[in-house]
Each structure stands twice: as structure tokens, then as C-alpha cells.
Design goal:
Layout lengths: L7 H10 L7 E4 L5 H21 L5 E4 L2 E4 L10 H6 L2 E3 L4 H9 L5 E4 L3 E3 L4 E2 L2 E2 L7 E2 L6 H7 L2 E5 L7 E2 L16 H5 L8 E3 L3 E5 L6 E6 L5 H6 L12 E2 L5 H11 L13
Parallel strand pairs: 1-2, 1-5, 5-10, 6-11, 10-12, 14-15
Antiparallel strand pairs: 2-3, 3-4, 6-7, 8-9, 12-13, 13-14
Helix pairs in contact: 1-2, 2-8
């Protein structure tokens, strides 16, 4: 069996980049460390830059307090000192400014990650266990609640596992499609809900009527049985699953040599 010319992370980066359009604004959230950083921050920023270099030169991001940071000049390490020196169009000190932009529908895309995702795209970053006191207290809602309520196209980026992909989250931090059907629209939330879920094994979207998670493509080398074994619920499956397009040699070269040559965004934590 030939070894792929790309890593799983590079496949995810390319898949997300293809979903980004010119002159859109994307919201990149926060990541703690290691794999959580890779999923929440590294992969989305690399995808944003790849989109700029390939088909969407006007795509920009808001990350932390940086509006449109220069993605052609990513710091060697995203520590506080480098972060404050990173050239950007603006660096509003007031977090309320950013939330105001979210609630006014100014963001086209957001990138979300969570320890728990359920079959209707609800996210949990608050607690595990569903008890009081909870078995595990997580980071808390931050602004993710508003992201899924208002942003036009949230994209979930997380690893596939039975512990993470559950029938019902222990705590709804962010409303996806709630209980399916029209339950989200009956809440009156202005945003349309999550668009995609990009994982390390497959990509999912959501059925237009039931709003249940639907398998869109398997990553090359993965099997349907293997993907289903890594989930605690059965997603919607329509026909023979397609395979996620593989990165081109040019895309891989851009990621490794131009976008992230020092491993700031993902290579230092890549798991494949």
C-alpha cells in the first residue's frame, strides 16, 4: 500500500479551504494546547491562508482580538508576545465589539470544536456527565453559544470518537438543530445552524429535513464500518459514500513550505 503524500491534517485543511469564498469573514475561536489547538485554531488558520492563495484572496479572519491578521506573516509561535506584535487591520480591546459583530450577522463562517457533538449538531464545551456536580467541568461557553446562534455557516472541526459523537450531548452549550426537524427554527434563532462537520475520518453535513448529521464523504483509506464504529449514533447515509478529494501536490507544498513551514499551526501536533 502506497503511503499518502499528505497527512490527515492536510486533508482537513484542504477540505475546509474549498468551502471558503472570496471576501468572506471567518471567526476562529480559541484553542488550549496540543490537539485542541490544532483543531480549533491551527487547521482553520491554515485553511484560511490556503483559500487566500488558491481561490479566495479576499477571505479574512477574526482571531482573538485580531481583525484580519496578516496570514502571510504568521508568527513563529503564537505566544502572547508574538500575538500582540502580529500585524492586523485592527486589534479591538473590547470583546464586546466582536460579540456585537457576531450578533449583527457580520461573520460568514466560523470554526467550532467541542468534546461532545450530537446527531443534531448541538455542541457541548461546558460539562461531561449530566449530573450536579458534573463529572468533568470543561472550559465553558465562551462565545460559542452566539456563534451557532448567529453566524451564517458554522463549520465544526473535531476528531471522530464514540466519546465525542454521542446521540445527545450532556449539556447544550451551543444549539445546532436542537431535536431536529423545525425545532431550531421554532426557537427563532437567526442563523441557519451548522453547515459541516469536518473530522479526521470523514466529513458530515446535515439532512435538510430531519437535520440529523449526514455522511458526506469518507477520507481515503477509511471504511464505512470503521467510521460508524467511531460514533455512538448512526448518521444519515444516502447511497454509496463518496471519498473526500485528496490534496493536490501543489496544496501540500503550499501548506508545508509557505503557510506553515515551522509547524506553528499544525505540524508540531499532527497525529498522523
Amino acid at each position: 500500500m502506497n503511503t499518502p503524500h499528505y497527512t490527515t491534517e492536510e486533508l482537513m485543511i484542504c477540505a475546509i479551504a474549498r468551502e471558503l469564498a472570496d471576501d468572506q469573514l471567518g471567526f476562529v475561536g480559541l484553542g488550549t494546547a496540543a490537539r485542541a489547538f490544532t483543531l480549533a485554531v491551527g487547521i482553520p488558520i491554515a485553511a484560511a491562508r490556503l483559500a487566500q492563495l488558491s481561490h479566495a484572496p479576499g477571505f479574512s479572519i477574526y482571531w482573538g482580538n485580531l481583525l484580519t491578521p496578516a496570514l502571510d506573516n504568521i508568527p513563529d509561535a503564537l505566544c502572547q508576545d508574538a500575538y500582540t506584535r502580529w500585524p492586523a487591520a485592527a486589534s479591538p480591546a473590547d470583546v464586546g465589539y466582536k460579540i456585537d459583530m457576531v450578533t449583527r450577522g457580520r461573520f460568514d463562517v466560523s470554526f467550532e470544536s467541542a468534546p461532545q457533538v450530537d446527531q443534531y449538531g448541538n455542541l457541548n464545551i461546558t460539562e461531561i456527565g449530566g449530573s450536579q456536580p458534573p463529572e468533568t467541568r470543561l472550559v465553558g461557553c465562551l462565545a460559542q453559544t452566539e456563534h451557532l446562534a448567529f453566524i451564517k455557516r458554522p463549520i465544526i472541526v473535531t476528531d471522530l470518537s464514540r466519546r465525542s459523537f454521542v446521540p445527545k450531548v450532556d449539556f447544550i452549550t451551543s444549539v445546532g438543530y436542537l431535536d431536529g426537524g423545525d425545532s431550531r427554527s421554532r426557537l427563532g434563532l437567526p442563523g441557519p445552524g451548522p453547515a459541516l462537520c469536518v473530522t479526521n475520518k470523514a466529513i458530515f453535513d446535515f439532512h435538510p429535513r430531519s437535520k440529523r448529521m449526514r455522511l458526506r464523504s469518507l477520507h481515503p483509506g477509511e471504511t464505512l464500518s470503521g467510521v460508524l464504529a467511531a460514533m455512538s449514533f448512526q448518521p444519515e447515509i444516502e447511497g454509496e459514500p463518496a471519498f473526500t478529494p485528496v490534496p493536490t501536490l501543489k496544496e501540500v507544498q503550499l501548506i508545508r513550505e509557505v503557510i506553515d513551514p515551522k509547524g506553528t499551526l499544525y505540524q508540531l501536533h499532527a497525529g498522523s
